[in-house]
Amino acid sequence: MSCPRQHPDRRRALTAAGGLVTGAFLSLAGPSPTAASAPARGPDLPAVAPYTNPVIWQDFADIDVIRVGATYYASASTMHYSPGAPVLRSYDLVNWEIAGHSVPVLDFGAKYDLNGARGYVRGIWASSLAYRPSNRTFYWLGQIDFTRTYVYTATSVEGPWSRLTTISTPYYDAGLLVDTDDTLYVAYGNTTISVAQLSPDGRQQVRAQQVFTTPSSVGTLEGSRFYKINGQYYIFLTRPANGQYILKSSGGPFGPYTMRQVLLDLRGPVPGGGVPHQGGLVQTQGGAWYYLAFVDAYPGGRVPVLAPITWTSDGWPVVQLVNGAWGASYPGPAVPAPPRQVTPMTGVDTFDATALKPRWEWNHNPDNTKWSAGDGLTLRTATVTDDLYWARNTLTHRIQGPTSTATVQLDHSAMRDGDRAGLALLRDSSAWIGVRRDGGVTRMVMVNGLTMDGSWNTTGTGVEVASAPLSTDRVWLRAAADIRPGAARPGTFSYSTDGTHFTPLGPAFSLGNDWRFFMGYRFALFNHATRALGGAVRVLRFELSTP
Questions:
Q1: What is the pTM of this model?
Q2: Residue 242 in 3-state DSSP?
Q3: Distance CA 18, CA 240 (A)
Q4: pLDDT tens digits for 302-331?
């Protein structure tokens, strides 16, 4: 992933959306690439239905995908959201659930606590997820703020994850490889690609060397994924945001490497979306290969798409196309029947456990003394501000595409004068529906005009554009979002006092589709004070539904 202010060539390459990436580790067992040209289907591999792209219509960018035994895992970028670096799990590469987060808290400086500074469009960028069989441990590796690299480990993706080390070299857009001899290597860089070798315990760098310089005719390459396949080393690279290239070495991890184009300006499977790029390769148990990439699909973000891969006789990957494009549909991967159904990414949450489900991420780190769960979600005011972008303990949920609706049941009886609580469509241009209490009077309001500039400073704290009287302590808030890419799309708000009959409030809100904020729109639950702390609200129920 490139920072637009540091890499103007990327700004030119990105037309409608941005492209980030996360690292990828490849299973080293199984047939050679040439033997894996066609999916294997044995007696234990039942016929499966075709799948459609995107395989996940939620914002998961910079995909890194691995297989451990019969289970697939993927990691993604989360920028300023906390916890960071979600780990997705699947048994068939098509149906996914969120299993946990590799980075429990963004303890990289006060700006990630909204303490005197803000971390918008920083934090968890393209990073890498790997599994090391020798110690049965998962590794997450990523650089933060161009200053240093952090490594976290866990023996289960659900956690607990803990920091193993900090390395002074910032491995930009890193891909971590666990070699067949258990040596750890990292491929990284923008345009100039390097490889580092880590110590056996993974705590420090013992060697680093530049291995490739991107030809000027290609432009920018980044988003490294590092593999060893059939005795050869491969670095999978993105040209943001319209191409994918691969480097190959038969001489070892430090090269020399030769380059080949995998795809460029390939028509994608999401109408209005961009070119599939910046993801990872993975091999099934039966020997088939797949490429899990993402498509720029704003205003919703970047959504994962899946395509089968074959290999040339001399060891180069080829994306299998449908009518000259990345297919909207393919035959499903031939894999064993899953041990269970994955947990849906939509549905109802009543916050009946003390820990939040992994589908939730805070806008920056929360103040953990100001929220609790178990009997609904209680949000006590944590910040005195008139700016939602500065308010701590705003809890976010990805929007399900192409259209979906979030409905929240809110008990606002413990709010205090000056408090604002509600349900937002959150990005660098935002709007919300909710409750405001002033002078002892409680009103339902719809507010838009919350904006940030290109340096992520607030330029608008919101304008109340509609209101209605409110006499009940409980209210249902609803936000509906259309996140089909290619144009600005509407978000609409409504409310109910009985949970059945909903009344629209305010005009439709235009969801912006500019890429530079990188993350897509999210539903967000918030409660902040404008006068003094002490108030609270309780979210009794959250439901994410699709038509």
A1: 0.92
A2: coil
A3: 8
A4: 999 999 999 999 999 999 999 999 999 999
